[in-house]
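Bug #77: duplicate submission created two jobs. Keeping one. Sequence:
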Amino acid sequence: MMVLPQDIKQYIESGLVCQYVDVSGDGQHFEATIVSTLFEGKSRVAQHQLVYRALGDRMREEIHALSMRTLTPAQWAEVEVR
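Kept job's structure:
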């Protein structure tokens, strides 16, 4: 069964409180932008670990490659201004 970007979006949103999630990809390789207040005060590695935890075993079984951009709401607001 092929995993779709909207599936990954749903997996992330059901396991992590997010203000914004966008996932794109071709069924093999995916890119995600994830905005969450839970990322505040955490290192990039800790932020990614939260996302991996939300995805659980799906990272090993269904998702072959996921590139993430994790941001706090304040960081996201700065990006949107540009």
